[in-house]
Each structure stands twice: as structure tokens, then as C-alpha cells.
Amino acid sequence: MILGGSTDGDSNRDRKARSRRECLEVDGRRRDEPVISFGPEDLRGVSLPHKDALVIQARVANYDVLRVFVDNGSSVNVIFKEALVQMDLHEYQLEAVETTLFGFAGHAVYPDREITLPLTLGTRDLRKNVMTVFTVVDAPSSYNIILGRPAMNEMIAVASTYHEKIKFLVRRQFEEVKGDQPSSRRCYGETFRVDQKKARREGNESQEEVAKER
């Protein structure tokens, strides 16, 4: 889960202004839109029981990107710099950003830049495209992209980690993207190993500092 970012503005003034605007906005949703729901049939192909994260494949800027982590708890969409370099987009319309990000453990992460890219979900016949703002983070990660609340809301999509699936409407028809459980488990294992190495390294550095002070 990632908190912060410039989703609500890159300064306190911007965030306050957006909050005031949203209080005045009128709900323009169509009341006759089909309801998105999940049922037993959505569990076909899902390995149960499971505690897997929802990891999917998405099309971003005409690239098929694997290891896309869907995280409704994150206030920003993140693309990791290594993935951006591999997509040969690291010099493409990058914008400066000042707002700090905070991870679940409270550690501060200082974003590199922001980039706006087309995000596509769905099949050829029922695909949905939105221009999406990604915060560029230069840090090691098992994932290439994190899709947070902004992307899910732009897509008007609903994610179910239990059903390992995202659902959304395209021209009043349901479309879905299924999660990749094997990929999710590989990412989890890699993340766990990286965190263990980081913890050991930080522990060794702390011991060295204590030794120096003595």
C-alpha cells in the first residue's frame, strides 16, 4: 500500500482546492448502468484456498506488461523506473513531482518523476482505454507497475482478490481481466527475499555504527 503522491495535487493548496471542488460536484452517474458483481462462476480456474495478491497483465503505451499489481489501497499508480527503461519510455514526457510517497511501513520514497501513458484492459472486442498518470519510482521491485485507486476509478473497475479478477463495463457490456496466480506467488517470493536481504544489510550497518561509537 502506497500513500501520498500528487493524485490530489502536488501541494497543500492544490489538495485543499480539489477537496473543495469535489464537495460541490454533482453525482452524474447513470442509475440504469448494469451492476458489477461476483459469484461462484467467477472462481473457475482459481486455485483455492489462496491468499494471493491480484497480479495481472495490462497493455501500457502499446507494450504488454506482465507483473502488474492491482492494489486498491494505494493512492497512486506506480511504474518502476527499470520497467520504464525497458519500455524505452524513460525520457518520454516526464514531469517533475515534489510530493513524497509513504509505504505501508511508513518509509518515505521520493519519486523520480511522473508520466502519463495510455492504459488498456480487456480484449480486442471489449477493451477500455484511459490516459493514466504514473508516478515513477526508482527502487527495486518484483512488480513492473502498481495500479492503485486512481487507475481503478478511471476504469470504473471493480477488483476482487478472492476471485482473482477485475471487472468493468465497456459499452454497457461486462469485461474482465483474470489474475495470474503463479506470477503473484513468484513476485511474493522475490519480494520476501529482497526484504530479508535489506533487513540483514540494515541490521549489519546498525551494528557497525554502534561498534564505531564504542
Short structural description:
The chain is α+β, with helices and mostly antiparallel strands and 214 residues long.
What does this structure look like?
- It is built from four helices and twelve strands.
- With about 210 residues, it is α+β, with helices and mostly antiparallel strands.
- The strands form three sheets. It has a six-stranded mixed barrel.
- Strand 11 (about 165-170) and strand 12 (about 175-180) form a beta hairpin.
Descriptors:
4 helices; 6-stranded mixed beta barrel; Cathepsin D, subunit A, domain 1; 214 residues; 3-stranded antiparallel beta sheet; 28% helix; alpha+beta
The quaternary state of the protein chains shown equals single chain
From the alpha carbons, calculate the radius of gyration and give it in angstroms.
19 Å
Q: So what's the CATH class?
A: Mainly Beta
- Beta-strand portion reads 25-35%
What would CATH call the architecture?
Beta Barrel
Task: Specify the overall morphology.
Answer: globular
Please count the helical segments: 4
Question: What is the fold's blueprint, element by element?
Answer:
Elements: E1 3-4, H1 12-24, E2 55-60, E3 63-70, E4 78-80, H2 81-86, E5 101-102, E6 108-109, E7 113-122, E8 127-137, E9 145-147, H3 149-155, E10 157-160, E11 165-170, E12 173-178, H4 181-213
Parallel strand pairs: 3-9, 4-8
Antiparallel strand pairs: 1-5, 2-3, 2-7, 4-9, 5-6, 7-8, 10-11, 11-12
